[in-house]
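Troubleshooting log. The previous structure file for this entry was overwritten by mistake, so regenerating from the original sequence record. Sequence copied from the archived sheet and checked twice against the printout by T.R.
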Amino acid sequence: MKNLINVALRAAIDASKEVHKIYDEGFSVSIKEDKSPVTSGDLKSNEIITAYLKQTSIPILSEETEHESESVIAGWQKYWCIDPIDGTKEYVNKTGEYCISIGLLTSETSLLGVLAAPSLELFYFAAEGLGSYKWNGKYEDLYELLNEEDVTEKILEKSVKLPLKIDLKNYTILTSRSHYSSIDKEYIEKLRIQHPNLVMFQMGSAIKIGLVAEGKANEYARLSPINFWDIAGGHAIAKYAGLEIVDYETKKQITYKNFSTLKISGYIVKNI
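Regenerated output below.
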């Protein structure tokens, strides 16, 4: 696992550097068949990350590459699941609320995860046997670690272990900016009965999972269907911080068994 987290960290850091440069200097946007946007930043990030992950000989499932058949993916014991830019709409709209997501999945769970949000200067990582962490140094200092043989040890020197203690005056919930649905609204209204002091913040991308693990919010609810690659990296960060990510429909820990759609029904992660 040590070698795998090293590779994933390098991939996320290197992709961060290029994605942020493109974000600042300008990018092209096109529309995919599913009507969602893709930018030159997404494609460059995908190119960088997959080049790193191919060194491990573990199969790769990415939002931005042609997907294998259902039967092929179902036969993988473990595989990389990546979203080169989660929150492409936020990338396009220049809110800064996008992140690079890398996860290592089995059909049951996520074994490793990295969430990197260069514009927000947030970087979280986790792995089985290691735990869950947040980088606590300057974001640009990460770039200097790319050539380190043991990048994990160097990053750990300036990272804090998650979860961090919650110290919030109001019960705080995070929700999606672009995918806020009537189901989410109904859930929050019920939650407000339990917590009259509830405050809600909408923002983009799976970086919200890291913020919950960090203690910046009590929970994050995303109750409409979501793709495997949108949660693969964040799942590990929550899991190894001791938090649960619960499937909204089954009320059980989320799994990755729905190979026909590569989606889960929606989820809630809490840090109480």
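The chain has eight helices and 16 strands. Archived copy saved in two places this time.
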